[in-house]
Write a structure and sequence with these properties.
With 905 residues, the chain is an alpha+beta fold. The protein is 41% helix and 20% strand. α4 packs across α5 and α11 packs parallel to α13. The structure holds (3S)-3,7-diaminoheptanoic acid and zinc ion.
Length: 905
């Protein structure tokens, strides 16, 4: 395999960008599809870039067998340089010429799932970032955009459906039981957006009429038997199309838009022009097999890929360093879409809290570890390693801050200003391959009077500097002056290659509350009147002081409302202040945040204390506050569930300089236990009040009720562990059996597994036999076991046993992740073992998977990113395990980059 290279890897640098030496205006591809030997005829119209000196044409290729190269119809000399095909004798001048290349490849043996591969008898492609070179020789870079014509030929019985990008212009039978289909894409595109699908699939179809009156055909293709699980994806697609037109004036620009699902896919989904290819996990959903979370994920991923049709496809990236140009922006768009779909302010806040939780539990650690990189990275060895939470989620926060910073008195959220910026961006760049700078510039130019325009060069440090900034807030109330002076100071830790950081532009949304919880008027010293409610201060210096006047008593500051910037906010809140915010803040995000801070403070005290973990980590004040939230008549169930959920172990770990994963786990378990017992009757009440929800609908209100009922049931089973009372485990088992939907069923199963009740085994067996034919449900079954709390060191042996299960398939990425990634990434209490056996397992699996799928292996390799923060003996053992992987002589570029960076930490 050519991706397995020995020796040091080449580093690609952003500053080395040069425009392509040649352009490819048109490409006409003919595929003779055969699993073992697919023949690809590639006819291109190529033209030299007149702006550059004449030079050889270097085409990228990987794992291809080259049979023929013709220039203007005649044979020509060529040579191979590494994996590149180099053509030196080309027609002089800048007139276009025809280049014809004939190659073959072996899709059945393509275990990397990049390029053209076969999954369950169907051909699929995945080209982003650099997979097209595994299909044919090409200028595999996003700034080369061509018009594609594609002819697919295949056996008619085995592959009745033949799909590619654009419009179907011709189809018909061929000799020998074969048939063909010819597709023309009306839009120019970079080759990473090319796709084909050929197989025996069925589809759901929907016609829609756009605002301008044009008709479009929407199709969702799946395996026979899965059609009844496609309704939600189709509805999500229709909603996404309508939303993009309504909010941004961006219509669907294709007659036909197709989604195809495959069960073998390295990531979530792919936005190929007009032919999105999806992991089944983000398409298929039925009440009986998918949870509320699955339904929400399908909605958001379908929308995300659709939104790429403009942000990514119509305007694409100049080079892969600009990945966040499309990903950060498209994540922002899908987050906004989901919030608009959620409706009520409370449901919007729930979505915002969930997004921030992901950012803080996963992106913040990335930004503090050896893989830390700017939202627009400066260098990479393997671009696939940079499809990260930083590029995606932090990138989305950077776009969100631009929206905030184009806000004004008349448009406080910045929505209108942002829509103007988007309009200008497309006016300027439609059909181009551009940079993150181009986007920010359009946003600023469309809003010339905004803070963004005023501060643009400094704002762009969010793209160039890695690391999570810390904002320290100190407030002093002066009773005689009736003033409150708030000093905000920022700093940002060093990250690899960036020892010193310049100050960022940080929008800090805030409000002030009275001790009784009333929102106070906000008036800065130089202002003539007060404004009520929210306002946004813009911090640009290392330290700045803001003085609020006319305040009759010491205020409780509600800082960083709505999480207005991706920073760590430090403020010495008293418990009383946090309890006030939890009870009264008008900003739901900060209300939730206050509860998290209260819990975190207690967790950290217990972790840092000497001696064994006390049984009582939580005090009456905290427990009473949680009880009040549970019974609050004005709060939604979904919000209550978030408040009552303790901070994750990894998030707790991020607050510490030295991480003892076992102690963190023990403390968090003790907190859960205590919460379960102390609030027992309240959990009973919450469960009874929320357990019945009528016919299943995945809307925010009923899914919130299911979430709260699920948490309550889990707490009641946890409490039953100690008191031995079989009533609640019995009820959980009954609910597991009788549930009318997967959410309730799985929550009940999870309650039994998490509490370690004897009925869990029976339930797991029953669940397996009931759903053994549904891959996505089986993934849940595997993940639940691999992620269960470790009580006696039994999880690792169980994980090894699960890998021997007849339903376990290492080569299927979803299944491999359900067991291995769940254990290594999401079960710290079981993974970090004093005997280092978890790390030995990790090392074996990284090497084993790297031999056939480097992308999946590299993701897994990142499970030990934070090794240098671990306490002994974990630290030395983890380092040794990483060194063992690094010492392997046939590593992929992907894994080598991850482990090399980890060891440099
Ligand atoms: N653009 C794809 C991700 C491609 C990943 C390549 N390793 C999906 C998305 O972000 O929408
Ligand atoms: Zn994307």
């Amino acid at each position: 395999m050519t991706s397995l290279r020995e020796g040091p890897t080449t580093v690609i640098r952003r500053e080395d960008y040069v425009a392509p030496a040649y352009f490819i205006d048109t490409v006409d591809l003919t595929f003779d599809l055969d699993p073992a030997k697919t023949r690809v005829l590639n006819r291109m119209r190529v033209r030299r870039n007149p702006a550059l000196p004449a030079q050889a044409l270097r085409l990228d290729g990987e794992d291809l067998n080259l049979a023929r190269v013709l220039v203007n119809g005649t044979g020509t000399s060529f040579r191979m340089e590494g994996s590149q095909l180099v053509l030196e004798k080309l027609p002089e001048g800048t007139e276009p010429f025809e280049l014809e290349i004939f190659t073959t490849c072996n899709p059945a043996k393509n275990t990397q799932l990049m390029g053209l591969y076969v999954s369950q008898g169907t051909f699929f492609t995945q080209c982003e970032a650099e997979g097209f070179r595994r299909i044919t020789y090409f200028l595999d870079r996003p700034d080369v955009m061509a018009s594609f014509t594609v002819t697919l030929r295949a056996d008619q019985a085995a592959y009745p459906v033949l799909l590619s990008n654009g419009n179907l212009v011709e189809q018909g039978p061929l000799e020998g039981g074969r048939h063909y289909a010819k597709w023309v894409d009306p839009h120019k595109k970079p080759c990473y957006l090319f796709a084909l699908v050929a197989g025996n699939l069925v589809h759901r179809e929907q016609k829609i009429i756009s605002r301008s009156g044009t008709e479009h055909t929407l199709q969702v293709y799946v395996r026979r038997g899965d059609l009844d699980k496609t309704e939600h994806a189709m509805h999500s697609l229709m909603a996404a199309i309508a939303w993009d037109e309504a909010r941004f004036g961006l219509p669907l620009d294709l007659e036909r838009f197709m989604i195809v699902a495959t069960s073998d896919f390295n990531m979530g989904a792919m936005e190929n022009k007009g032919l999105n290819i999806f992991n089944t996990k983000y398409v298929l959903a039925s009440p009986a097999t998918a949870t509320d979370t699955d339904f929400a994920n399908v909605e958001s991923v379908v929308a995300h890929e659709y939104f790429h049709n403009w942000t990514g496809n119509r305007v694409t990236c100049r080079d892969w360093f600009q990945l966040s140009l499309k990903e950060g922006l498209t994540v922002f768009r899908d987050q906004e879409f989901s919030m608009d779909m959620a409706g009520s302010p409370s449901a919007r806040a729930v979505k915002r809290i969930e997004d921030v939780r992901v950012l803080r539990t996963a992106q913040f650690p990335e930004d503090a570890g050896p893989m830390a990189h700017p939202v627009r990275p400066d260098q990479y060895a393997e671009i696939n390693n940079f499809y990260t939470l930083t590029v995606y989620e932090k990138g989305a926060e950077v776009v969100r801050m631009q929206q905030t910073l184009v806000g004004s008195q008349s448009d406080p959220s910045g929505r209108e200003g942002f829509a103007k910026g988007m309009k200008l961006y497309f006016e300027r760049h439609d059909g181009q391959a551009v940079t993150c700078d181009d986007f920010a510039q359009a946003m600023a130019d469309a809003n010339p009077d905004s803070d963004l325009a005023r501060l643009l060069p400094q704002f762009k440090r969010w793209y160039s500097q890695a690391g999570t900034p810390r904002v320290k807030a100190q407030g002093i109330y002066n009773a005689s002056e009736r003033t409150y002076t708030l000093t905000l100071s920022q700093s940002c830790p060093a990250t690899p290659g960036q020892p010193v950081k310049e100050p960022f532009v940080i929008p800090v949304a805030l409000g002030l509350l009275s001790a009784e919880g009333q929102e106070l008027p906000l008036q800065l010293a130089h202002e003539s009147h007060a404004r009520t409610g929210n306002r946004t201060l813009v911090l640009t210096q290392a330290s700045e002081t803001f003085t609020f006047i006319n305040l009759d008593s010491a205020p409780v500051p509600s800082l960083l409302r709505g999480f207005s910037a991706p920073v760590i906010l430090e403020h010495d809140y008293t418990d009383t202040q946090l309890l006030t915010l939890l009870a009264h803040d008008t900003d739901p995000f900060n209300r939730w945040e206050a509860g998290q801070r209260l819990a975190l403070r207690r967790a950290l005290t217990a972790i840092r204390a000497d001696g064994p973990v006390p049984a009582e980590v939580l005090d009456t004040a905290y427990l009473d506050a949680m009880r009040a939230v549970l019974h609050h008549p004005g709060l939604d169930a979904a919000f209550k569930e978030l408040v009552l959920t303790l901070p994750a172990e990894t998030y707790i770990g991020e607050q510490l300089d030295v991480v003892d994963p076992q102690r963190i786990h023990t403390v968090r378990e003790a907190m859960r236990q205590q919460l379960a017992h102390a609030l027992h009757d309240d959990w009973v009440h919450a469960y009874e009040a929320h357990k019945d929800n009528g016919a299943y609908r995945p809307d925010p209100v009923s899914s919130g009720r299911r979430a709260l009922a699920g948490l309550a049931l889990q707490m009641l089973c946890v409490a039953a562990r100690d008191n031995g009372n079989p009533v609640w485990p019995g009820k959980a088992y009954q609910r597991f059996k009788d549930a009318g939907n997967m959410t309730d069923r799985f929550n009940a199963l999870q309650a039994l597994v998490i509490s370690g009740h004897a009925l869990a085994q029976e339930a797991l067996q029953r669940f397996h036999s009931q759903f053994q034919h549904d891959d996505l449900v089986l993934d849940k079954w595997f993940a639940l076991q691999a992620g269960a709390p470790d009580r006696s060191g039994n999880i690792l042996p169980l994980v090894r046993q699960l890998m021997q299960h007849p339903d376990f398939h290492l080569r299927n990425p979803n299944r491999a992740r359900s067991v291995i990634s769940t254990y290594c990434h999401a079960n710290p209490g079981a993974f970090h073992r004093a005997d280092a056996a978890g790390y030995a397992f990790w090392c074996e699996r990284v090497l084993e998977i790297d031999a056939f799928n480097p992308q999946v292996a590299a993701r897994l390799a990142r499970a030990l990113d934070r090794w240098s923060k671990l306490a002994e003996p974990y630290r030395s053992a983890a380092r040794e395990a990483i060194a063992r992987v690094a010492a392997h002589d046939a590593l992929s570029n992907d894994v080598r980059e991850v482990v090399t960076r980890a060891l440099a930490d």
